[in-house]
Amino acid sequence: MAPHLRWLFLQFLLLLLEFSSAAQAQGNITLGSSLTPQGPNSSWLSPSGDFAFGFRPVEGNTSSYLLAVWFDKISEKTVAWYAKSSSDGQESPVQVPSSSVLQLRDDGLLSLRNPSGDEVWSPQAPSAAYARMLDTGNFRLVGADGKAKWETFDVPADTILPTQVLPVGQQDKVLRSRLIPTDYANGRFLLVVQPDGNLVFYPIAEHSTFQYDPYWASNTVGNGSRLVFNETGRVYFTVKNGTQINITSAGVNSMGDFFNRATLDPDGVFRQYLYPKSSMVRNVWSSRWTAVSSIPQDICQAISVKAGSGACGFNSYCTFDGTKNQTSCLCPQRYKFFDNERPDFVPQSCDLDEEAAMAEFEMTLINSVDWPQSDYEQYSPIDETECRRLCVIDCFCATAVFQASTNTCWKKKLPLSNGNMAESVDRTVLIKVPRSNNTQSQPSSGSSKWKKDKKYWILGSSLFFGSSVLLNLLLISILLFGTYCGISITSKKKLQSPQSSGSSILPPKIFTYNELEKATSGFHEVLGSGASGTVYKGQLQDEHPTSIAVKKIEKLQQETEKEFMVEVQTIGQTFHKNLVRLLGFCNEGTDRLLVYEFMTNGSLNEFLFGDARPHWSLRVQVALGVARGLLYLHEECSTQIIHCNIKPQNILLDDNFMAKIADFGLAKLLRANQTQTYTGIRGTRGYVAPEWFKNIGITSKVDVYSFGVILLELVCCRRNVELEIADEERSILTYWANDCYRCGRIDLLVEGDDEANFNIKKAERFVAVALWCLQEEPTMRPTMLKVTQMLDGAVQIPTPPDPSSFISSLP
């Protein structure tokens, strides 16, 4: 093609694209209109096409969608608003699967329904005559009189846009940060215009609305106060007497050249961002969001709370680079980020004498860092050597802080809060860690190795506006989620990245029988057996000898053949950190074998019911892992999977004691248009839901029931059925736990367990969740999504109804 023709062709394509975009943009949205997450009708555009309202896929989870407003003309599709639902006073982002529907109904109400037809979100608004997505980024429901009945500007999330106002004293008109940029759950910071006319930034206790001491305030008074983001791009706070206080920079010369937003970021900083619209502006301005103003300037110094974790998560420390306007949160050596509220570590035993303690533990050094709280002992005068020794031999001491100028030593317990690194900090931190043979030195500041261990709070310009968009997305995609640092048992262990349902994975490998016979040394070492076959330990002769578990299907009946193919197809298409990975299979002649990753710590059955009681923190970790694995099977797979045989023997533990659900051979698959299935009774005595014995359909709620039993077993460290117990009232755990809960005696369930008694409120929460799962009526049991939210403390738990009977679970 000639050069001039190629140029004309490209211009024609550009015109077509512009026409297509303009064609999709619309004015009034009429009654009866609807959107679905997938397909051509997934959003409604503003007249200019700048903004869209509709479904956005959740990053890292291709089967889950937000109801949101976003900037549609930029590649990032930055979300400016997202819907939240309230439950028991707590808010959480509305996330729905692909078959959900949003409809502006004929009666004028906007309703979002999941694939089962249940309404999961609807604004509290009168009937509308039509809806409209405005070029300001505001989505409105409009009455016949032309007045707005409801609008997204009235219920902001973490962002405000030009022409948007936050008035005084309205509870729903506040900004709440996200947890992290890719997780829309409520974060740890709040911006609110208080009823007294004061604009205040608060740190918030996670999974609650409790406000710690403010870290920034306008210190103003007046009923007419409000936060204004005006048409010129200026963000200011106006009080009753007309005084205006600039919150960000004084506007932009040409608003037509930039997209503009102001966001309360996950690090607690309120930043105003610009993004160039035209190619002419992009020639002199980077094609990314750039922060032009921020408040407070140094979040590390701004936040210091008497309770709570401070600017960063517990056991982390915060550092601010003023030359780069960059905030970072770092973990000390041998600490890593975790996604729950307790570090995963084996604490120092208080039975160790001084010599044994000195042999097992050592102190590593970080300069110019301090955690100003958590002190429980102080020594002065003292030298650094003695400060080290006193912490090592004290089983309560996790960290010692030494100040050379005053020869003072402070001993501290976990968790540590308000950590801060700065040149002005005249202190040295000594971190207690287990000794290891790893002699690789660790720098005492934010080194690259530390940054590899960071999951979260790599903040400021480096993440949000300091590097290329592509690099930012890549960085975010490799970060793990979490807000706390915890001790790593050995420096050789690596964090495992959580895998989403959209992860790209290799299909299961096809093995020959001879390969597996050789790998298992002739099927010599038996790991376990079940109704469908026996499992053997083996080792592949590959580049890095891989330990495997080989399940040999021993009965070649037609039903077993079908079961085998179901298991291969099911596990081969699933990949999640809380599911056992299928590496391959053998389908040779009459031989049917499945090859799994090997779990070094065996089954939950062995872990929980052995001679020693596992640490409470590990039991909590297992409970959350099993819940997330079931959530994936039920709601995040492209095809819903009901396991049908959840029991401790089918929950395996890897070398980090991460729980992984195994044995999908009994799973029933549901097509997208199915909600229940009929099948023969499956499962194990003590874990079987009552509906198995009734002539009703089986749903995913059978797994919820089984999880409830296991959750009680994890709390109490005993089997559900122990008929040999002398006290007959305690022989059935589900009966006894219900009685203890009704009498307010959760302490009886964890008698002799000091760790659980120390965390008695969490134990009570877990028991309440279990009792909800054990409701005899399946529809009364929560979904696994709700279960995970209740376990995490993200929502309050109403008192569960007293189950009418548990006896049907014991055939």
UniProtKB/TrEMBL annotation:
Any one GO CC term of the record: membrane
SMART domains linked to this entry: B_lectin (SM00108)
Binding residue positions for ATP: K552
Primary residence: membrane
PROSITE patterns (UniProt xref): BULB_LECTIN, PROTEIN_KINASE_ATP, PROTEIN_KINASE_DOM
Membrane topology annotation: Single-pass type I membrane protein
Locations listed in the record: Membrane
InterPro entries per UniProt: Bulb-type_lectin_dom, Bulb-type_lectin_dom_sf, G-type_lectin_kinases/EP1-like, Kinase-like_dom_sf, Prot_kinase_dom, Protein_kinase_ATP_BS, SRK-like_kinase
Record-annotated Protein kinase domain positions: 521-807
Claim: Plastid is one of the keywords in the record: no
EC number assigned by the record: 2.7.11.1
GO BP term (any one): response to other organism
Domain of life: Eukaryota
Keyword terms: ATP-binding, Disulfide bond, EGF-like domain, Glycoprotein, Kinase, Lectin, Membrane, Nucleotide-binding, Receptor, Serine/threonine-protein kinase, Signal, Transferase, Transmembrane, Transmembrane helix
Reaction(s) catalysed by this chain's protein: L-threonyl-[protein] + ATP = O-phospho-L-threonyl-[protein] + ADP + H(+); L-seryl-[protein] + ATP = O-phospho-L-seryl-[protein] + ADP + H(+)
Leader sequence segment: 1-25
Family statement drawn from the similarity comment of this UniProt entry: Belongs to the protein kinase superfamily. Ser/Thr protein kinase family.
Protein name: Receptor-like serine/threonine-protein kinase
Organism: Aegilops tauschii subsp. strangulata (Goatgrass)
Classification of source organism: Eukaryota, Viridiplantae, Streptophyta, Embryophyta, Tracheophyta
